[in-house]
Design brief:
The structure holds 2 protein chains of 2 kinds.
Chain A (H helix, E strand, L loop, with lengths): L23 H34 L15 H30 L12 E2 L17 E10 L2 E5 L12 E3 L1 E5 L3 E8 L4 E3 L8 E3 L5 E6 L4 E6 L12 E7 L1 H34 L10 H13 L1
Parallel strand pairs in A: 2-6, 5-11
Antiparallel strand pairs in A: 1-2, 2-3, 3-4, 6-9, 7-8, 10-11
Chain B lengths: L22 H6 L4 H30 L9 H36 L7 H20 L25 H30 L12 H32 L13 H35 L6 H15 L14 H29 L8 H24 L1 H7 L3 H31 L5 H27 L15 H32 L37 H13 L17
Helix pairs in contact in B: 2-3, 2-4, 2-14, 3-4, 3-5, 3-7, 3-12, 4-5, 5-6, 6-7, 6-8, 7-8, 7-9, 7-10, 7-12, 8-9, 9-10, 10-12, 10-13, 12-13, 13-14
The chains are: A alpha+beta, B mainly alpha.
């Protein structure tokens, strides 16, 4: 299982979240993180410095007399306001960076043809949309312990849509809007290089987006405890050129249609056999048998 | 006070007084706040060791990639047991233990307001711990200490262990509620004459706020686990989306309790540090009022930040922004406290005794946990960091570097009062060294593990990037930390017999617990002094020094008495 996710190689960010070569939202989070890290470093070294200094400078010596100071209102108001000031700066920086993280951009002109999100089934009401409202909207469904992806198609019937498990194939240069759901317990969708987490909660629809410019493969895994094999619930996103994606989609569609047809034929045949009077056991109740046959036929 | 050596003959003969109980009977029947306090401290420390062993087992499993030392089911049970034990059976109740022992002593009372209720609190806690740990013999819970629905519903957690967890929450919850009411009533009514709110020791201030937070937060979790129980066994569907319920309702209820719980676990630690620093810097606490006020403000804000644990759930932007801002606000009073502590050391004469070292260690390590908390409050950044080892690192910096260091500072500071014996200073300093290095080796690298994309609560990880090296470092650190804790256990056991006699006031403390003998007699104080400042013992020492000086000499005592005030 582990060998599956070897793909992306050097993920050696010591100080900051994984980034580079992925999606814009992930890059923006990385930048925001670095800005906070810079402020944090100043606060950290300032306070630790003062602490170490007072430990060394004011350690008990012979004849040293401790100053009997009980407080200093001005100083105290000063550092309260100082702390508040730092946080105001961080809040402003966050609000400035937020749109680039939360809101998806338009697809590139040479990307894969997209649809209006508003028409796609199951898109969440809160889901931020690209300026032109168009994206490739894929449904991600968390199930113990695998991810299932459903691709959109032209008709309203979702049962004949192209789907895939574990590996999500996507076209490059195209805005991918994910609609995230869960089937059983809560899961969390997370591909570090393609943006932050989105929890998949049963009964709710969550969303995220990414847009990959160059072909590549990005690993991730479920980030919300979902049971014993939570550790093995991997997801890999493989980005390919739009043409290649188109071919893959068509192949997959043919494959699924062929399999559906074969399954239908098999079921019809089984139903026929059961209805034909060949009871599997000699003492079978004829009423039960016909019920079973009817149930098979419906399926 | 320095007791007279000769036993006085009582002038009044008492009739029909029960003979004092001896041996184990005296412990199970006691209503003395000091004995109950000791029961609390010892019991919770045993649970601390159990939780620590669970942590070490997990670290062994994670020491190498694709390890097969533990099965997934055992691993999931271990982190559930570890988290639940450390929070419900160690940090919260050991603080209640310190409170039980020292709250009446510090405010000059002879016992708690409700001594029998106090005993009940302890026995409920023990019952909760036993019920929970007995599930080891059946099927321990595997849903984490947060027990998110639907994973904790019967479909996915069939075992009785989940129900044992619910029972534990109820039993320890009632225990803490009764204890909190007791603390509140005692502080409100039983303070020594002259001890107004402005002269209350800061540890007592934090216990007061701890009690209020428990009273506000615990009923919510009690209600939530009751709903979970009826969902599991009586066919209701509060958290089951299939029946019109909502898994997110659990998360909201859980964290509405869960975040105040974080401050319940840290505030009394703040209080201990605020007591210890001035004693060893020989300087009054800097900004007493600001520290007391910051405690109250933190408690208020603690009730308004819960959904920052839920930034990755489907939420409107306005909700995310509200909880980011409220979480930012809480950093201000916390920062104020840290500045005040540093200012307390500033221009003092710092004596490097073990309680002080643990307190300063607390400030330096807790600071890291506080700063990473700000990272996590920024919700877009949290989308990357949430549920990864970065969060594990953050919460352990706060809980181990924060609460545990404060608790150890408290152990070294008050052990002489409880037992009448001093702990060994060299052993204490070694213990600190191993714990301090251990914490940083274990948890600093976990930030990077999380940034590299490793989620928490996974029993194995593939050998990609630097994960194997980083995790091995973390595992080595955890054993150093464990060894440091062991040294303190050895120290405490050894000093019971071999420790140097402490006397009533070995540290020249500021508060009233140092006014009585070590260990204190059953009635605590024969005479309760009148309190005239925040540091009543300083006043008393000054008074005693004045009275014991011969009247005739003009008293030229500059340097010799310098250390006593």
């Amino acid at each position: 299982m582990g060998a599956l996710v070897l793909a992306t190689g050097a993920s050696a960010d010591f100080w900051t979240p994984e980034s580079g070569g992925g999606s814009e939202n992930s890059e923006n989070i990385d930048t925001l993180y670095k800005l906070i890290l810079a402020v944090a470093a100043i606060v950290f070294f300032g306070v630790e410095g003062a602490l170490v200094y007072s430990m060394v400078k004011f350690r008990a010596r012979k004849n040293a007399v401790p100053a009997q100071i009980r407080g200093n209102t001005r100083l105290e108001i000063g550092w309260t306001l100082g702390a508040a000031g730092v946080l105001v700066v961080l809040a402003v920086v966050t609000f400035v960076m937020l749109p680039g993280i939360r809101n998806p951009p338009n697809s590139d002109p040479d990307g894969f043809p997209t649809q209006r999100i508003v028409n796609v089934q199951n898109a969440s009401a809160y889901q931020p949309r690209p300026p032109n409202g168009r994206a490739l909207n894929i449904e991600v469904n968390g199930q113990r312990f695998i991810w299932r992806y459903t691709y959109p198609d032209a008709d309203q019937n979702v049962l004949n849509n192209v789907f895939n498990y574990e590996t999500l194939i996507i076209p490059t240069k195209t805005t991918i809007a994910l609609t995230i759901k869960a089937q059983d317990v809560a899961h969390s969708w997370w591909i570090p290089k393609l943006g932050g987490k989105a929890d998949a909660v049963p009964g709710h629809t969550n969303f995220t987006w990414f847009k990959v410019d160059k072909p590549g493969s990005f690993r991730g895994q479920c980030a919300e405890l979902c049971g014993r094999n939570h550790a093995d619930m991997y997801a890999t996103v493989v980005a390919v050129e739009p043409d290649q994606f188109k071919r893959w989609l068509a192949n997959k569609k043919r494959e699924i249609d062929a399999n559906n047809k074969a399954a239908q034929q098999r079921r019809a045949k089984e139903a026929e056999e059961l209805a034909g009077g060949e009871s599997p056991t000699e003492d079978a109740n004829p009423v039960e048998e016909s019920e079973a046959a009817a149930a098979q036929g419906e399926g | 006070m320095a007791a007279t050596d000769t036993a006085l003959i009582p002038e009044i003969t008492a009739h029909r007084v029960d003979r004092p109980q001896r041996g184990w009977v005296s412990w199970v029947t006691t209503t003395d706040h000091k004995k109950i306090g000791i029961l609390y401290l010892v019991t919770t420390f045993v649970f601390f060791i159990l939780g620590g062993v669970e942590a070490l087992l997990m670290r062994v499993q994670l020491g190498a990639p694709d390890n097969t030392f533990l099965t997934p089911s055992v691993y999931n049970s271990l982190f559930t047991l570890h988290g639940t034990t450390m929070i419900f059976l160690f940090v919260v109740p050991i603080l209640a233990g310190f409170g039980n022992y020292f709250l009446p002593l510090m405010i000059g009372a002879r016992d708690m307001a409700f001594p029998k209720l106090n005993a009940l609190s302890y026995w409920l806690l023990l019952a909760g711990g036993l019920v929970f740990y007995l599930s080891l013999f059946f099927s321990p819970p595997e849903a984490g200490w947060t027990s998110y629905a639907p994973l904790s519903l019967e479909t996915y957690s069939e075992s009785g262990g989940m129900d044992a967890w619910i029972f534990l929450i109820h039993l320890t919850g009632i225990s803490s509620l009764l204890g909190a009411i007791n603390f509140y009533a005692t502080i409100a009514n039983m303070r020594a004459p002259g001890m107004g709110w402005g002269r209350l020791p800061l540890f007592v201030w934090t216990l007061l706020v701890y009690a209020i937070l428990l009273i506000l937060a615990l009923p919510v979790i009690a209600g939530a686990v009751t709903l979970l129980l009826t969902d599991r066994h009586f066919g209701t569907g509060f958290f089951d989306q299939g029946q019109g319920g909502d898994p997110l309702l659990w998360q909201h209820l859980f964290w509405f309790f869960g975040h105040p719980e974080v401050y319940i676990m840290i505030l009394p630690g703040f209080g201990m540090v605020s007591e210890i620093l001035p004693v060893f810097a020989r300087k009054p606490i800097f900004g007493y009022k600001a520290i007391a006020a910051a405690t109250v403000v933190i408690a208020f804000l603690a009730l308004l930040v819960w959904a920052h644990h839920m930034f990755t759930t489907p939420s409107a932007t306005i909700v995310l922004v509200f909880f980011m801002i409220s979480s930012f606000l809480i950093a201000i009073p916390t920062g104020v406290k840290i500045f005040n502590w540093v200012a307390t050391l500033w221009r003092g004469t710092v004596e490097f005794k073990t309680p002080l070292i643990f307190s300063v260690g607390f400030i330096s390590v807790f600071l890291i946990g506080g700063i990473t908390g700000v990272f996590l409050a920024v919700f877009p950044v949290d989308w990357q960091l949430h549920d990864t080892y970065f969060v594990v690192a953050h919460l352990h910096y706060v809980l181990v570097g924060g609460s545990v260091f404060a608790i150890f500072a408290g152990i070294y500071y008050w052990y002489p009062k409880i037992t009448g014996k001093m702990l060994s200073e060299p052993l204490g300093k070694w213990s600190f060294a191993f714990m301090y290095i251990g914490i940083n080796v274990t948890f600093l690298i976990q930030h990077s593990i999380g940034l590299d994309g490793m989620p928490r609560r996974i029993y194995e990880y593939p050998d990609v990037g630097h994960l194997a090296t980083y995790n091995l470092i973390s595992t080595i650190g955890s054993f150093m930390l464990g060894f440091g804790v062991l040294l303190t256990v050895v120290n405490a056991a050894r000093s019971l017999k071999k420790g140097v006699a402490a006397g009533p006031d070995p540290w020249k403390g500021n508060t009233l617990e140092w006014f009585t003998e070590s260990p204190p007699p059953v009635n605590n104080f024969d005479v309760i002094p009148r309190v005239r400042s925040v540091e009543p013992m300083k006043d008393i020492r000054r008074q005693v020094a004045r009275q014991s000086e011969p009247d005739l000499s003009p008293a030229p005592v500059p340097a010799a008495a310098g250390s006593s005030d």
